[in-house]
Amino acid sequence: MNKIKIIIRREYLSRIKKKSFLVMTFLGPILIAALWGIPFFLALNSESESKILVVDTTLYEKNGVKSSLFLNQFKNNEGAVFEYSYDINEAQAKLKNKEYDAVLEIANTNDNPPIKCFLFYSENEPSIQTQENIKSQLNQIFKDYVLTYDYGMNKEDLNLFNNPRIGFYSKDLDSGTESYIAVKTILGAISGFLIYMFIFFFGSQVMRSVSEEKTNRIVEILVSSIKPVQLLMGKIIALALVGLTQFLLWVLLSGVLIGGIQTLYPQTFSQQNTEKFVSNERVVNMDAINASVQENQNTNEIISGILSINYALVLSMFLFYFIAGYFLYASLFGAVGALMDVDTDAQQFTLPITIPLIIAMLCFPMIINNPSGDLAFWFSIIPLTSPMIMMLRIPFGVPVWEILLSMGLMLVFITGAIWLAAKIYRTGILMYGKNITYKEIWKWFKYKN
Amino acid sequence: MILFSTKDVSKTYANHKALDKVSIDVEKGSVFGLLGPNGAGKTTLIRIINQITAPDEGEIFFKGEPLRAEHVHNIGYLPEERGLYKKMKVGEQAIYLAELKGLKKSDAKKRLEYWFDKFDILNWWNRKVEELSKGMQQKVQFITTVLHEPELLIFDEPFSGFDPVNANLLKEEILNLKSKGATIIFSTHNMESVEAICDSIALINKSKKILDGRVSEIKQRFKNNEFEIVIPKEANIRDFLIQGVDLIDNSIYNQTSVSRLSIEQGRNADLLSNILKTTDIISYKEVLPSMNDIFIQTVSHEQD
């Protein structure tokens, strides 16, 4: 045991002292902050809104007077600013002069559909968002016209019609708490993704560290003093500690950084902007009053959603799968590292390990759509994918027996993986200049150690 | 006194038998040479001694008791494939390896200072291994092997990869350690070094031990009544040959005639008196086979 400590100490300290660790520690939070902050700044700096010149030649009767249906009806928003003209030739000339980003021509036709709109642009086509923005405004304006003039709705009716006052809540029958699916999805996805990242990053570091000792040829000196399994375990534990240290530092530094930015630019991160970011589409179409009502509702929802989650369960599950998943994969990565040599390619051995990880990652959206489906069930039971997939499911509630089965299998697999890794490792590290095949590895299991 | 021994040790790798009932006895305070062609099983035996692999059958004794995990503290090992952490500082690394051998940090540091001073490399302490030349790294490796003052030292092909200066230094140090009471096992192809430093040897071929014993004894066993006689060049050795004496070869060297003769038991006196009747004998000696001859003879004999 004492010797494992010596191994852990060296592996831990030598990594913590590395420049790359320091760089990653300071760069990590900046990256995280950037990832988090850039969308806000982008949402804020949408001054690159399109200037659109509308040429409306439609004629519809409004209160007995024929006029253009869309004239002065478009609402300016952060996606686009609208101006109006009567002359299409003049408008197109202005477009060529780059006074406008696009010209929208709206005309009656005798065809079907009776109204046709053409969006002319030169050089840069307006973004898909801008085009969607225009399309939905066109529909809304036409709908409002029909409802107002054909069905005689007043402004209040119209408002109610466009924004029906309906609340939708899903409730857990047993606990009586409301379910907040968005919050759960985000929580599940973040914890699943963290586990995935941790396994990939630090698991592959175990692999590199093992293969480095092998190619250095120091490993034979080491295993004459310490059992190969102890060496491998020491390495795996040390890297887990390095990873945890890094994560802890990231959390602290990110907190400091984000807090710092928020105090520096308080307006940018006000409630409204957060909401805009969360749901851009809604802002586009909503009346100002409605929007703020909705916003408050949303904020409340998020807060009660956050409060509704069983954190003790989520956190303990997270810790379990975080550590268990890492140990499972790190031992396998360690075994693969032992197969690498200066002149041999271990790609064929890394693939079987990385494939389940990547499959799990690719299945995230499907699992989120149906957290209690067959795919979700099996992937959260099978230990190679369960660390990530179970974490996606946990916030939605998973039957206890499924959790226990998954955890039990996980423990069995870890034991198996460590046993397997130890067998491969102790033989592989002393195998120099030989092209190792799966057949060869199979023989190693028959060796007595 | 026997410090270390193996009894009928066998090891099989899948379908290849690496060692077949190999028994060796290593005297305390001796230098024991483990000889054999490539792939004979030397490294496997050495790894078993170091408890890196376990034998399938057979027993191993260290100081009379069955080999245990703690015995690694009394064994120093310099493998054939050896290296160091390239990015780690020399001193730090040496202390780390010593700690793994059970030394306390403070003791390790004191002893390292002694050795670094002895090899005049104290100024390397804080340099990274990758900054050192290969020869320098070899010195560090040697120090880390002997630092914990093990009773048994094992060198696997120690002279391979060492430059002549370091190889000589190593040879001297091995003899030095021996004089201080250490027991040394080393495997080698280099037969000259066997003659120079080994007290006894075991020859392993195709996973079996085919020859062992003290070097002097083995040489006696393999002698084939060959003698070298030197007479003035004016005399012709062929004139003196008698029954039971055959000439193997003859050459003129430095104004003398040097001949190798095969002489049947009991014919020496007759031959010598026959020569002395006519001319002088400058020198006369028995020719013992070199370890190299014995090695080649025994191994090729096995192959037939």
Report on the structure:
The complex is a heterodimer of chains A (449) and B (304). The two termini of chain A are 20 Å apart. In chain A, the strands form three sheets. A four-stranded mixed sheet of chain A has the order 4-1-5-6, sandwiched between helices. In chain A, strands 2-3 form a two-stranded antiparallel ribbon. In chain A, a hairpin with a 2-residue loop joins β2 (60-62) and β3 (65-67). In chain A, α1 runs parallel beside α8, α6 runs antiparallel to α16 (386-393) and α12 (311-339) packs antiparallel against α16. Chain A is α/β, with parallel strands linked by helices and 449 residues long. In chain A, 66% of the residues lie in helices and 8% in strands. Chain A is built from 18 helices and eight strands. Chain A folds into two domains: 2-41 and 180-444, no CATH class; 50-162, D-Maltodextrin-Binding Protein, domain 2, CATH 3.40.190.10. With 304 residues, chain B is an alpha/beta fold. Chain B has two domains: 2-220, P-loop containing nucleotide triphosphate hydrolases (Rossmann fold), CATH 3.40.50.300; 224-287, Alpha-Beta Plaits (2-Layer Sandwich). Chain B contains nine helices and 14 strands. Chain B has helices at residues 42-49, 90-100, 105-118, 134-146, 164-179, 191-197, 215-222, 268-276, 291-303, and strands at residues 2-13, 16-27, 31-35, 57-62, 65-66, 75-78, 152-156, 183-188, 200-205, 208-214, 226-232, 245-253, 256-263, 283-287. A six-stranded mixed sheet of chain B has the order 6-7-8-3-9-10, with helices on both faces. A four-stranded antiparallel sheet of chain B has the order 2-1-4-5, with helices on one face. In chain B, α2 packs across α3 and α2 runs parallel beside α4 (134-146). The model of chain B has no long low-confidence stretch (mean pLDDT 88). Classes of the chains: A alpha/beta (449), B alpha/beta (304).
